[in-house]
Structures are given as structure tokens and as C-alpha cells.
Amino acid sequence: MADMSDLVLDVKNLRTVFFTNSGLFKAVDDVSFTVRRGETLAIVGESGCGKSVTALSLLRLVPDPPGRIVGGSVTLEGTDLLTLDDAEMRAIRGNRISMIFQEPMTSLNPVMRIGHQIVEAVRLHRNMSAKEAHDLAIEMLRLVRIPEPARRAREYPHQLSGGMRQRAMIAMALACRPALLIADEPTTALDVTIQAQILALILDLQKELGTGLVLITHDLGVVAQTAQRVIVMYAGKKVEEASVEALFAAPKHPYTRGLMASIPAVPASDVAPQARLNEIPGTVPSLVRLPAGCAFAPRCKLAIKRCQEEYPPLADWGGGHLAACWRAAEVAEVA
Amino acid sequence: MFAYLVRRLFLMLVTLFGISIVIFFLLRIVPGNIVDILFAAAGYVDPADKANLEKELGIDQPLVVQYVHWIGGFLRGDFGYSYVSEKPALQEILPRIPITARLAGLALLFSASIGIPLGVISAVKQGTKLDYALRVVSLSGLSLPSFWLGLLILTASVAMFGQMPIFNPNPQTWLEAFATYAVPAAAVGFRSAALTMRITRSSMLEVLRQDYIRTARAKGASDAAVNYHHALKNAILPVITVIGIEAAFLIGGLIVTETVFNIPGVARFLVEAIRWRDYPIVQNLVMFIAVVVVFANFTVDMLYAVFDPRIRFTE
Fold this sequence. Notes:
By secondary structure, chain A is α/β, with parallel strands linked by helices. In chain A, 34% of the residues lie in helices and 23% in strands.
């Protein structure tokens, strides 16, 4: 067990629901995880599995209505964020916990200068003069390796490329040196070459500043390169959690296995190259009408009767490797 | 930028030229001229007298000649004489302009300062009782003609205070001046305020869904900063467009409002002049209004670039 003082974020039994016309759905259902200082935790899953809502729940930015956090705790540096009032929560956002979003093209305010947007983030939380904050903003732009930071600070978002904008977003998110950075698919919208640069930048800065990082992605390649630990989400639930090594060596959940099998261009040595990409059959179920048992059962090759009737508990398979599957023991053999 | 300005200025001149033709010929299409009206009132018509008078006023000449005569004078700054008062047209029009300008300015101020904040509130509180209440107010503003609202205000003030607001031509203090213009300006500006509110609301709703609003919240910005600083700055462009168009529509509203409130401004004067077929007054006054509207549109276009850095006027 790691030293508790090292713990930046401790999420316990988080539950976020949405009230919609077609009914109530559990976007995040009983999810727990921790992040330590300097550690990278990856959250993996398909679109609609609750990754982004989990991230927004940590910042308490789930749009309400229709969404609401209905249970659990989010403890950041010893404070349960879910018990804070709005003003206290605002003092935390952008200060102790920051977020980078998926779309750099639309995540910066188009009518405000880049520098000003960073200055705003700084001055909301630090007692600085406009001049000091401006100097810090330029320093941050330099830190994220934007050439000519003083000139770029005077420009508007539309004058920057997608990669540059994401760098500016990172500069803004890290300007107050947060304890925790949440990156919600930070490279999905970027060119492949830029993706690698941005990831490397985030990891460098994370190391430099000792920030805890929650990296949300659907790209297992990114996970393998960056994270120490991974949680796999499916239909709002955490279905597997493990260290990166353990997860890639022996995934316990058939869904995780399916995700790995569907990575193209990484053919296992004993598998002949195939014409058709691997896929997980079917789609993520509607969160409004979840089956009584395992939500993945309808798509699972290994599903037995019990899977349809009873939800499997998260069981520890050794070394903190958790998986919620009745047939986890057989996954490795069967697949 | 300079090339754009030159081109824009040229287009404005072309527009104004077109307007001058429309004004001139529309006015001639209206049956009767001042001579007909004068002689009809007298009851007896001696065709020779009538022809003499028409000749004296120059309205017996071919239309094209009349037009060239008017526009030539207009360009030289010679606006002719009012048929009715026989005073120089400029002398008749100029003193009335400040009255209408104050009224219009106040009405626009009223519409922006009430419509924009209420539109923001309505959008932020979308779906709440407050939003519904504000939307009803906005809808009523759009449905109530300004003359009807003016009459209601007058009737109500008589019923409640036993008197109605009288136009004070020589207000001594700033406050008196405000009191003189506020009520009619509110009556005519209510519609603009309602429209501004609607546009602000829908524009804000669009903007509040954007990713950068979430970014602003994630920074820790307060609701007020998010709504007024981040969102409104992005939502304001359509609002400016509407206020610009309203500035033109306002003239129409002012004509009836000045009549209802008995205010001696240009708008009511214009109606009088039309009734008498007082060509020099009507032509020059409508031309003046056209110039104001064209420049208002130009200003709005220039404001786009001020509010949105993505808009640049280049060739």
C-alpha cells in the first residue's frame, strides 16, 4: 500500500445519473479509483461508456439538469469535493484540478486572446497583478513549447493550429500548478504526428510538476505508452482495473480482451495477418434499459446463463488486478 | 481595409442614389399634389390659376427635369422651400431633428440596456418560470404596436394621475429632459427591447452549449463571468445586427409615437408634409433618414470586426 499522503485523488463509489425523457440512466455507476502524485491513471472504454461524465463529475461540471451526482465521494488532497459549496468548488477548479478537453478547435474562446485566457485562469486563483499574470502566461506558453510565446499570447485561437491550441489549453490548465490534471481524449482530434508530441508534452510536464494525471482515452496504444494504471469502463461501470503491465499481459475481462483484439497494426506473432479488422460485435447497450446481469453479456462470446441474471462483483485477481466477470478465470484460456 | 472602405463608400452612394429615385417617383405616384389639395379645399377651381401655381412651384415640368432639379439642389446643399410654410426646407427640418434624435437614441438605449440583460437572464434560466415570464413580456412587446402602447400609457396616466405627460420643449435640467423623453422612448423602444431580448436569448442559448463555455467553468470562472464575459461576447453579433435594423424600423415607430404623444419631431412633421404633398420637405427628409440608416448599417458592419477578431475586411 502506498503512502496515503501521496494520494492526490480518491474517488469512492461515484454515481452520476441523468434524468431524461426516456428515463433515468446511470452514466457513472459505483466507480472507485485513486490517483497518486505523479501517477497516470488511464480510463478506457468505448464512446458512451461514462468516461467523460466521470471526468466532468470530478470537476462537478456535469450539466444539471439533466445530470446529477447522486452518491459517493471525490476526495482531492483530503477534501471531499462533493461537500463543497459552489464558491469553494470554483476555487478548486482550474487551481487544484484542471482539465484538458478533446476539441482544441472549440475549447478556447474565439473572441479572447490566448494570453488573456491564460491570465484569466491565473488571476482567478492567484493574487497577481495583470503584469505578473501576463508574464506567467507567456512563461507557460514557453513551457508548452510554443515558439514566440509573447506574440502568440496576443493572438486569437483561430490564428493557431490545432496542435498549438491544445498546447495553449495545456498551458492554461497547468498555469496554477494543479495537483490533478484530467485529460479527456486530448489527442483524439489531432493529426497522428501531433498526437505523439502532445502526449509527450503532457507527460513531461506531469513529471516536472508532479501532477497526478487522469487520462481518458479509447486508444489502448496511448494507454500502453503513458499510464501506470488503467481502469476499463463499460456501460457506466468499472469492469477491470490493473497496472498497465498486468492488463496487457493478461486481461481478465472479455471486454478488455475485445478492445485489445480490435487494435489494428499490432498483430500478435502467432496470428496470421487478416483481411478484416477485429471488432466487438454489437453496440454499447442503452443505459436506460440495462440488463439485470452483466451489461456486456449480450456481446460476450463467453456469456453463460449466470451472466445474464447476476451482475458479477469486482474480484481481486492478485496485485490489485480487479475484474468484474464470472468467467474471468477462463478468459485467458478461451480467447 | 482601405480598399474595403472605398468600395463600401461607393456602394453606399449607389444605394442612396437608388433610394432618391424611389422616393421621388413614389411620391409622384401618390394621387394629387399640393395645388389639387389647396384648390379642393377652396371648392372652386379656375384651371388657369391652378396652372399658374403649378408653374410657380415647378411641378408642371416633366418628372425627369423635376428630379434633376431636386437632386442637383440636394447635392449643392440647396434643399428648396417648403410648399406649405414657404420657409427654406432646411430651416423647417433642422430644428426638429434633435428632438427625434433624442427620442430614437433613448429608445435604442432602452432596448439595448433592457433587452440584452433580460435576454441573457432568460437564456441562463432557460426553462424556469422566470424564463417563461420574460418570454411572455418579450412576446407582448413584439405584438403590441407602439401607438397602441402609447395610447395605453396615456390612458393609464390619466386614470392614475389625472393628467397625461405633456411634451416640454424647453427642459431646464437634465432630469426634466429625461422625464420628457423617457415615456415616449419607452413606448417606442419596448418593441426593440423585446426583439433584442429574443435574439439575445437564442444567441446566448447557442453559445452556452459551446465547448469554450465548459472550459471557462473548468477554469473556475464565476457564473457572472461565464455568462457576461465569455458567452455574451460571443453572442452579441446577431444582437448588434438586430439593433442596427431596429434603428431603421424605429423611424416608423416614431412617426406614430410622436403623433400620439404630440411631440414636434421630424417623424410627425414628415407625416404632415406627406399629407400636404410638400415635396421638398418629404424628399429631403426621407433622404436624410436614408443617409442615417445607411450609415447605421455601415457602423454595424464595422462593429462586427470590433467584436469578432475572426472578421477582417480584406479584399
